[in-house]
Amino acid sequence: MRIRVLDLDGSLCDQPPIARRLAAGNVELHDLRPQGPALRLWSLGHHFAAFDRFWCSLPRDPQPVLTLVGSGDFHHLTASFIAAADGPLTVLHFDNHPDWCWTMPRRHCGSWTHAVLAMNHVVRLITIGPCSEDLVRPDRKGADMDALSTGRLELYPWWHAPSTVERSGIADGPGHRVADGALHWRNLAGDDWREFLDELVQNITTEKVWITIDKDVLSPAYAVTNWDQGGLPLDNLVEAVLRIAARFRIVGADICGEYAPIRHRNPLKYLEARLDQPRAPDLPDLAVNARTNERLIAAFEEAL
């Protein structure tokens, strides 16, 4: 397995698990900090197209590559990674947010799953771990109810109350049932995690899998991020990576969810970040991110 760091916001290279691997020559580093502000949170079409050209220009490698990109504000870059990957493909998405909202511009960290679901080589997108308010009134926020109804999109919250929907005709799925005008979720906090993984492994129909992780799926004990956070334990996430990698061919993976101070040059981005993102402590304990990255990178190194 190869490790690739896209340095978009300065949040990664000083972390001990990455610095150590950089010094040993085990990390491919790309300094993209000049492009970071234009890509962070959301991106205009020409900036995203430029990034896409950069990504597609990188040499293809038969080995799977683990890509680290910094803040979860860059999660929409995952759409470029997956677009260039071989299929047929199942995408496993660990996140406190379903990233299915309607946004303008459309290249946004809160809406990138729409682009992935439009890709012909993606058979299914499985989102695991959300607890966020993006699950409140999902049909009003832009959630792809058609994909959820047909099973191309599966969603398993860590915990969330039933989500009221106005649309009728939504079918039940493995992560939800429809009753009384609401989606009643299968909350994983109340499930046996290993039994859930057993079912997950049996129900994936493709040989190839992409894993994308936003560390805001974890509780604050395991990560400091720019976003509100969920409750998935780190041990559960590591176990999932190892189980999936033991059974399927991981064609690639990416991790985001670092903490990077808000320094938007664009006033609209600055305002959106201030409105949507919780205020970080004055002195966030960023060592927790390094410890979590060590475990996640080690899990991928062991598995791949």
Q: Which key phrases capture this entry?
A:
304 residues, alpha/beta, Arginase, Chain A, 8-stranded parallel beta sheet, 3-stranded antiparallel beta sheet, 11 helices, 13 strands
Describe the fold and architecture.
The protein is of the alpha/beta class and 304 residues long. It has one domain: Ureohydrolase domain (Arginase, Chain A, 3-Layer(aba) Sandwich), CATH 3.40.800. Helix content is 32%, strand content 22%. The chain has an eight-stranded parallel β-sheet. A three-stranded antiparallel β-sheet has the order 9-11-10, with no helix packed on it. Helix 9 runs parallel beside helix 11.
Give the C-alpha Rg: 18 Å
Number of strands: 13
User: What order do the SSEs take from the amino end to the carboxyl end, as H and E?
Assistant: EHEHEHEHEEHEHHEEEEHEHEHH
Strand content: 15-25%
* Average of per-residue pLDDT values: 96
Strand order of the largest sheet: 2-1-4-13-12-5-7-8
pLDDT under 50 segments (min length 5)? none
- Tell me about the biggest sheet? 8 strands, parallel
* Number of domains as seen in the coordinates: 1
Kindly identify the CATH topology: Arginase, Chain A
What gap, in angstroms, lies between the N and C termini? Answer: 6 Å
Structural class: alpha/beta
Class in CATH?
A: Alpha Beta
What is the CATH superfamily classification? Ureohydrolase domain
Protein name: Arginase
Organism: Labrys miyagiensis
InterPro entries: Ureohydrolase, Ureohydrolase_dom_sf
